[in-house]
Structure formats: C-alpha cells, structure tokens
Write a structure and sequence with these properties.
Blueprint (H helix, E strand, L loop, with lengths): L1 H7 L5 E3 L8 E3 L7 E4 L3 E7 L2 E5 L13 E5 L1 H19 L9 E7 L4 H13 L4 E2 L13 E2 L4 H12 L5 E3 L16 E3 L4 H15 L3 E7 L2 H14 L4 E8 L4 H13 L4 E5 L2 H13 L6 E4 L1 H4 L10 H4 L3 E5 L7 H6 L10 H11 L41 H20 L21 H8 L3 E3 L5 E3 L9 E9 L5 E10 L8 E3 L26 E5 L8 E5 L4 E2 L9 E2 L4 E3 L6 E3 L1 E3 L6 H26 L4 H5 L2 H17 L9 H35 L12 H25 L3 E5 L6 E7 L3 H24 L9 H25 L3 H32 L6 H11 L1
Parallel strand pairs: 4-7, 4-9, 9-10, 10-11, 12-13, 12-14, 14-15, 15-16, 28-30
Antiparallel strand pairs: 1-2, 2-8, 3-7, 5-6, 16-19, 17-18, 19-20, 20-21, 22-23, 24-25, 26-27, 29-30
Helix pairs in contact: 2-13, 3-4, 5-6, 13-14, 15-17, 15-22, 17-18, 17-22, 18-19, 18-20, 19-20, 20-21, 21-22
C-alpha cells in the first residue's frame, strides 16, 4: 500500500524512482505537523482543526517553499482532540473490548486549511519513512482508519482519496448531505446527523412558528451550496426563500452585497450555513452596521459557540437558535482534561501550544509549527495549575462534538472487536475466511463498520445506516445570557427525524429568548395570511408567498386561513356577510306572521265581514223597495261570491304546498267567475227590464229567475271545467325559487301549465270585458238607482286593478309577488263591493225616507 500511495501523491510528497534491480519510492521531503501521537499495535489516524488560521510560506519561486504556519489556537476545540485520546485510553484499559491489543493514534492539525488537511491525509495513509521498498504493499498499513475531518469541504476531498484504498473516514462534524452518496463516498461515515436532517429540523421549526418568508446565506463551497439547495427545496414546500446567497470571506464586495440584502429584505428569519471562521467575519460587519431585529438560525458548524454573541454582538446575535448533535455525558472526561500536561515532544507539540494558549506564556524550547502569536508575557514552566482555570476546554456541561469523536473511536473499536471474534469457516471474506489482527487491513475494518451498532457506556445507542449516517436526532439550542452574564447555549427542544409525522419536533417555547423589543415570537412573512372570506391571488413575477387577498364572490366561502380558492356553497346555502361559512338561505314567503301578511289578512277579514254585513243588511231589509228593486236573489249570490273572493285571498298567505297551490288558484278562478257571472246577469237583467217596459215587449218572461240561475251556473261550470282539465294535465305545485334572489329561497307556487293558468285568467277577463261593455252601454238607461252606472263603475275599477296588476306582478320579487296578487284580489273585491252596494246601504241605513216605493217611483217619474 505504501508504494501505491507514493504514486498517488506524486505532486504532493514523492516521485517514484524505479531502480534496475528493484522498485523504490523515495520521499522528496517531509512535512512538519502540529500533532498528537502515541504508538500502539493498531494505529488510528485523525485530522482535527485546532488552529484556525493557516499562514502560507513566501513563494519566491527561487527556492524551496517553507512550511505553512498555524495561528489562532482554539482551546475549546482542542477538547475534541483530547476526546479521541480519552476514548483510546479508555478502550486500552478495557479488558473485554480489545484485550489483546493496544490502540495508538496519530493526530494532525489541519489549521482549517485544505492543503494542510490533504498533506496530513497523505502522511497518514502513506507513512513518513524516507524510502519505501515493499512495492507489494504487504504488512500492516500505517493507520487502519481516519477520524475527521471536521469540515465538509475537507472531508469531501479526503474521502475521495481514501475510497481508492477502501479506508474508512469517520467524521464527527462534517454535515454536508452530499457525503451520504455512497457511490461517490463509499467509505465515509459520520457520527453527526447530516445537513438533510438539520435542514428538515430547521424547516419543521419554521413551520411550527409560521415563518414562511426566510433568507439564507451559505458558504461558497460544497457544504454551503448543498445545504442551500436542500434548504430551498424543503422551504418551498410551505413557504418561500426571500434570498439565497453564498459568501466568500476573501471577497469584500460580496460581503457588503449580502449585508445590503439583509438590511433591505423584509425577511426576519435568516439561516446561516457557515463555518465559525466565516460567520465571525460576517458577524463583525453586521454588528458594525447595527443590524438588529433579525432571528438568526445557526447551522451546526457555528451554533456551538455562544461566546460569539458576547458583549457588543449580543444586540444583533443574542437569541440565535441553532441545531446541534445531542448533548451527552462522558464519565471521567472532566478529570482526564484536568490532568493534561504539556509536552515538548515534537510528535505531541499540540500539548505545548495548548499550554501556551491557556496560560498566555511561551516555552523557550518550543519549535512547533506555529507563529507563536501569544503575547510573551512570561515563560511557561509546565507546572501551572490547570485546575485553577475556568475555560471552555474543561467545561463538560455541553459535550456534543467531543462525544461524536468519542463515538467514532468506539465504532472502530467495536469493528475491531467483531473482526477479532471471527471464527474460521464463518468469516465474511473470500472462501469464508476471517481477518487476522496481526495483519488487519482498512477494507476489513470498513466491512464491519457498515453494520456497526452498539451502546456507549452512557447508554446512548450508536449505529450507521446504509448511507453511513448516524441516528437523526438533534438538540435545538438558544443563545442566552446566564445569570453571571456569560453566554450559554440553552437546550430548548430537540428534533428527531426518525419519529412519526407530527412528533418529530419537541420545543419548549417558554424557554426561548427572543431578542426583540416585544420579547415575543417574531413574524416573518411576505404577506399576512388571507383571512377567512378571502383567497390568495398571486402577484405576477413575485414569489408565491407574496400575494393579494381577494374577497370571495357572493355565494362562495373560504373558511380557513390562507385559502387558495373559494368554495361554492351548496344550492340551499349562501355565504354569510364575511364569506367565511355557508349558511342556510333565508326562506321567503308571505306568511301570516309578517307585517305585510298581517295587513293583508286583516284587510281580507274586513272584506269578509263587510260582505257578510251587507248580506245581513240585505237579508234584514229584503222586503224594502231598494232590495227588491235590485233583484235580491242576485244580490245575495253576488255578496256570497264576494265573500268567497275575500276568503280565497287568504289561501295565498302562508308557506305554499302542492295542495294550497292548487286550492288558491282554483278558488280564485271559480269565486271570481261566480262573482262576475252574477254582475253580468245583473247587467243583462237591467237591460232586459228596460226593454220589457216598452209596449208589446214580453222578453222578460224568457229571462226569468230560472234562466238567471242557469246562466250563472253555466258560466261557472265552464271555469270549473277549465280548472279540472288544468289540474289533470299540469297542476300548480309548490317550488323553491333560488334564482331570483341568491340569499333567499323563495317558496312560491308554480302554475304548472301556463296554458291552463292563461285560460283561467282569460276566461275571467272575457266575462269582465263583456260585463263592462254591457254595463257601459246601459249606463244611461232610466233604471232604478241607475244600477247600470254602478256596475259600469265597479267593472271599471275591476279592470283597472287587474290591468295594473300584470306589470306589478312581474316586477315584484319574492313574497311581494304574492302580495301584489293578494292586493289585486282584495282591491278588485272591495271595488265591486263598494261601487255596487255602498249606495244601496247608504239609502237603507242612512236615508230610509228614500227606501219607499213612492220615493222610488218619484225618482222614476223624475227621470222620465
């Protein structure tokens, strides 16, 4: 394997130099690394980020370039490297897991620089010997697996190299979802949930709080670009991304461009998929421009550092919500950290750098690969008391990434345990063979890692899925000030992507600190949700989250918030005033309880009583000359028919039914024909009576009482026949009219056969016209009390009422249509009653002196 590596790192480290007699790979130079080292039977490699700045050498192109130097030692991050050392020491002391071998390690600092990370990887897999003679790649490789790199960008590059040798790479911080692609990164594993889980957690939180208008900024690399793409896809399922930008800390113009977008955007929720180093630069500019009133959502690489929001940064970044791997317990880890001692061994120079950064001193003999940026206030003695310090290094209250490192080491240890437990004849390799601990290879460890599952000492379950990802559970943290003013990451909930829908998110809202003047949950929407009664109308050329709210049309509703369309109400329902729900339409008909119904009923009752009263008067005074002179029998019958006319109007009041619809029209037609027939016969009698007074005319005997009765009966029977035919072909029926008025259901009577109804009305009209013409022609005849004049006037009123009824009937809506019809019946009936009988009642009741034969004859003589 060593010689294969030589070929691979042709440009990086060495050139193949085949000799005539044998092949040799000679290293063209060695690199010095910040490192931690301990020998063992089986070696584990590691790439960590401890220093956060890499200083390149001067490139003059005249001499060999010097070594890169590292700066900005991070004490808190060094805890992660120590977590690996702690786990290996714990495993070596465990007599049950790997009792017959000792694990060693070689850990390199990448200085957050890809070149350094690649150099470290090449050194780990190729070894650091000057000459490699074994071209057949036999024997135990320098390392069997590598833990790291913490950065997704680095892990992508490293994993592509390690995949060639099927060497496992287990990262504790690389979250890029692209690394779950097993075709491209087959040997990559991680003990932290991927960005896919993190993005789903973020979007679930946003849906929970109703944040549909959000911005996002990502690093201009594979990690940031993949995270932004995944985030946009998830957000667009329920909301919109107001802006999505990538940032490069070396491009100041781009940074200012992003700042301006953040200031101008109405999005109050902004997600940052950035590393700690990049977000620090962006924070500085945001605070400088005093941008507040934003709720920041932090991705895993920087959400673990609440100290970033200390002091002047708190106004802008206090209350930041982040997603981190679950907090865990590591028994004995704090005591292990407190026992840390410096070392001047070049293979463990990170311990010296840690000591110098912690106590702000300098070892005079330290020649580690650093620019010694610490202030040389004093010389380090190595006897300083680490227990007297209170730093993030010894703080084990928020163990997250360090626990991921711990799990990664134990995953390899459990894989080795299974490998060592293999029995010949039952092995997983060719011909059912097993691996041998004396010559274990990375690809063999990789085989066992794929199906790894175990429980840590603290009770946490650890397993890899088919993509090499760990269990998808994340803590939700909130940056807050502790009682002493220090910044802390307070756990306010968690997200479990493996839970059933609706139970993935658990959040304690009362524990969240909202860094806003109101102190309440912020809103972040482009347009307020459309309220019930309105629907969303998208704006052309704008995101779907920016819209107008259009009121629903009449008869349509939207009952929920944010409806995209209005629903039409069922036939018997109509929208309420707010268009928020369908309500039963108002039932409309002329009822006895309405004011109009009461008025018409009262009027009809008065008409009935007046008709009956006049009838009683005529019966009482039937032997007087006035009654006798006006054909008392016809008068009695006319008054009875008028009474029926008044009564039939009551059939038009009340809720229609099939029976009442038939009764009302039949009663109306027959009663009015009977009434008009009586008046017509009365008119004929007047004319015949005048003709009978002429000498030699004996016509009266041909139109006596029997003929009069027969004529009335004949005319009435014709109407009855019309009604019978009508009722047997297409009778009237009750109907629900929903067309004339949208908000009402009008109960009305449909005439059924228009022809039948027209015949009924036409026959009444025919008799009325004949009666009017005859009465008009006989108006000047010298009859007693000038009866023809009274009949002419009554028929004139009758015809006028029914002629004006037609347009009023057609133009009246709802129950007013029936009211007009009832009014026409009552008006015409009162017209007949008053015009014909009022003069006679006047004489009978008020002028009895005129109700004598002598007075009648005197009047007759006067007329002659």
């Amino acid at each position: 394997m060593k010689c294969i590596v030589c070929v691979f790192i042709f440009l990086a480290l060495a050139f193949p130099a085949p000799a005539p007699d044998k092949f040799k790979c000679k290293s063209q130079g060695n690199f010095a690394f910040n490192s931690l080292y301990k020998p063992g039977n089986i070696m584990l490699g590691a790439i960590f980020a401890v220093n956060f700045r890499a200083i390149p050498p001067e490139l003059s192109y005249r001499s060999k370039p010097g070594q890169w130097k590292c700066d900005s030692f991070d004490i808190a991050i060094f805890q992660r490297a120590q977590a690996m050392v702690f786990a290996i020491e714990e495993i070596n002391q465990d007599q049950t897991l790997l009792p017959d071998l000792t694990l060693g390690y070689k850990l390199y600092d990448n200085c957050v620089n890809l070149q350094e990370a690649m150099r470290g990887t090449a050194s780990l897999i190729g070894g650091e010997d000057d000459i490699f003679n074994n071209y057949q790649c036999e024997g135990v490789p320098p390392v069997i697996a590598i833990i790291g790199d913490p950065l997704s960008l680095h892990s992508i590059s490293i994993s592509r190299i390690l995949a060639l040798f099927r060497m496992p790479l287990i990262s504790y911080c690389a979250t890029c979802s692209c690394l779950s692609n097993k075709q491209e990164f087959p040997t990559f594993f991680r003990t932290i949930p991927s960005d896919t889980v993190q993005v789903r957690g973020m979007t679930t939180l946003m849906k929970h709080f109703g944040w549909t208008w959000v911005g996002a900024v990502g690093a201009d690399d594979d990690y940031g670009l993949n995270a932004l793409l995944s985030f946009k896809e998830e957000v667009e399922k329920f909301g919109c991304v107001a802006f999505s930008e990538t940032i490069n800390i070396n491009d100041r113009t781009k940074i200012f461009h992003i700042i301006n977008i953040i200031k101008q955007s109405t999005a109050n929720i902004i997600v940052l998929f950035l590393t700690k180093m990049v977000v620090t630069v962006l924070m500085k500019e945001i605070v400088h421009q005093n941008i507040t009133g934003r709720q920041w959502i932090a991705s895993d690489p920087w959400s673990a550092y609440p100290v970033l929001a200390s002091n002047e940064n708190f106004a802008s970044f206090g209350g930041t919500i982040g997603f981190l791997t679950r907090r865990a317990e590591m028994p004995g880890f704090e005591q292990f950290l407190l026992q840390t001692k410096p070392s001047l061994d070049s293979n463990n120079n990170l311990l010296a750098q840690f000591w110098e950064a912690l106590f702000r001193c300098k070892f005079p003999t330290n020649d580690s690969k650093t620019n010694a940026s610490v202030v040389e206030e004093r010389v380090c003695t190595g006897s300083e008391d680490i227990k007297s310090t209170k730093t993030e290094y010894t703080d084990v209250s928020q163990i997250r990434a360090s626990f991921n490192v711990y799990k990664a080491v134990y995953a390899i240890a459990h894989a080795l345990h299974k490998l060592a437990s293999c029995e010949n004849g039952k092995g997983p390799f060719r011909n059912n063979t097993c691996a041998y601990m004396s010559n274990v290879q990375p690809w063999q460890v990789f085989h066992y890692l794929k199906n790894m599952s175990f429980t840590t000492r603290s009770g946490d379950r650890m397993a890899f899925d088919e993509n090499g990802d760990t269990l998808p559970v994340l803590d939700i943290i909130n940056w807050q000030k502790d009682k002493d003013g220090t910044m802390i990451s307070k756990t306010v909930g968690f997200f479990n992507d493996s839970a059933v829908a609706g139970q993935k998110l658990t959040i304690n809202e009362s524990s969240i600190f909202w860094n806003f003047d109101s102190g309440k949950t912020p809103k972040s929407i482009c347009t307020e949700s459309c309220q019930p009664g309105t629907r969303i109308a998208t704006r052309k050329g704008e995101p779907v989250c920016c819209f107008d709210c259009v009121p629903c049309a009449d008869g349509e509703i939207s009952s929920g918030i944010g409806a995209t369309e209005c629903l039409k109400c069922p036939q018997d329902f109509w929208s309420n005033d707010k268009r928020s729900q369908c309500v039963l339409k108002e039932v409309d008909f002329l009822s006895f309880g309405d004011a109009m119904g009461i008025t018409l009923t009262t009027t009809a009752s008065i008409g009935v009583f007046l008709s009956l009263g006049v009838l009683a008067i005529f019966i009482n005074y039937r032997n007087t000359p006035v009654v006798k002179a006006n054909n008392s029998e016809l008068s009695f019958l006319l008054l009875g028919s008028l009474t029926l006319c008044f009564l039939c109007s009551l059939c038009f009041i009340g809720q229609p039914s099939d029976l009442t619809c038939r009764v009302r029209h039949v009663a109306f037609g027959i009663s009015f024909v009977l009434c008009i027939s009586c008046i017509l016969v009365k008119t004929i009698v007047v004319i015949i009576a005048f003709k009978a007074t002429l000498p030699g005319n004996n016509i009266m005997k041909w139109f006596g009482v029997t003929q009069q009765r027969g004529t009335i009966l004949f005319f009435t029977i014709i109407q009855i026949i019309i009604c019978i035919i009508w009722l047997n072909t297409a009778p009237p029926f009750s109907s629900r009219n929903t067309k004339n008025q949208n908000v009402k259901i009008i109960f009305e009577c449909d005439v059924g056969s228009v022809t039948g109804f027209s015949c009924l009305l036409g026959y009444i009209g025919l008799l009325s016209c004949v009666c009017f013409i005859l009465a008009f022609l006989a108006r000047n005849l010298p009859d007693t009390f000038n009866e023809a004049k009274f009949i002419t006037f009554s028929m004139l009123i009758f015809c006028a009422v029914w002629i004006t009824f037609i347009p009023a009937y057609v133009s009246s809506p709802g129950k007013y249509t029936v009211a007009v019809e009832v009014f026409a019946i009552l008006a015409s009936s009162f017209g007949l009653l008053v015009a014909i009988f009022a003069p006679k009642c006047y004489i009978i009741l008020l002028r009895p002196d005129l109700n004598t034969k002598k007075a009648l004859l005197g009047r007759e003589q006067k007329n002659k």
